[in-house]
Write a structure and sequence with these properties.
Shape: globular
Oligomer: single chain
Largest sheet: 2 strands, antiparallel
Radius of gyration: 16 Å
Number of helices: 8
Strand content: under 5%
Length: 195
């Protein structure tokens, strides 16, 4: 995947802006610093938000998978395990992930997205409705409700009011790969461009 160097009014390239938003989803205490424990706490927040007990099989799988995201994408070889990572460290790590074909983190991102789909498909009909998506995108990933609604509408390619796991995977990878700051995919986790 290619990263972008499209600059915004704030001077940060598009890739940096997107990954700072992504990393912010894991920074529950908003201290601009994340750790492996923050990733596990995010998993717990996802499960709790969906009403799932922490010891449920799916909750455990989500926690383990987010720890793998930390281990493969953010802190390979334990780089940030001792003191955690600044959000800028996360940006640097993600640049490396996306610049490396067949990076091990890619499979972990897919696994996490599939688990989130299972968690958010609360009625188990094989689709995520607008209400299911917006509720969990906001509650679990700390994304503003308006941005969550915009993300859902972008993911709902056939405009039938629901998304599939393939839609969720597609829009997630589009978020990472887009080089267009005006693309709805760039703003999946909140506004990416300055007015």
């Amino acid at each position: 995947m290619e990263t972008s160097d499209t600059r915004t009014a704030s001077g940060q390239d598009l890739f940096t802006r997107k990954i700072l938003l992504w990393a912010g989803c894991f920074d529950g205490d908003r201290d601009f610093h994340v750790s492996r424990n923050d990733f596990a706490l995010t998993a717990d927040r996802c499960s709790s938000d969906a009403g799932l007990p922490g010891d449920a099989e799916l909750a455990v799988q989500i926690r383990e998978t987010l720890r793998k995201v930390w281990d493969t994408a953010v802190s390979p070889e334990g780089r940030y395990d001792k003191h955690g990572a600044s959000l800028n460290d996360v940006v640097d790590s993600m640049r490396q992930v996306l610049a490396t074909p067949d990076h091990p983190a890619t499979a972990t991102f897919i696994e996490f997205t599939q688990l989130c789909f299972r968690l958010w498909d609360t009625d188990s009909d094989g689709y995520i409705s607008e209400a299911e998506f917006v509720t969990h995108w906001h509650g679990a990933l700390l994304v503003a409700p308006q941005a969550a609604l915009a993300a859902f509408r972008h993911a709902d390619r056939d405009d039938d009011g629901r998304i599939t796991v393939e839609d969720l995977l597609g829009v997630s990878f589009e978020f990472l790969s887009t080089t267009d700051p005006t693309s709805p995919a760039a703003s999946l986790l909140g506004r990416i461009h300055d007015s």
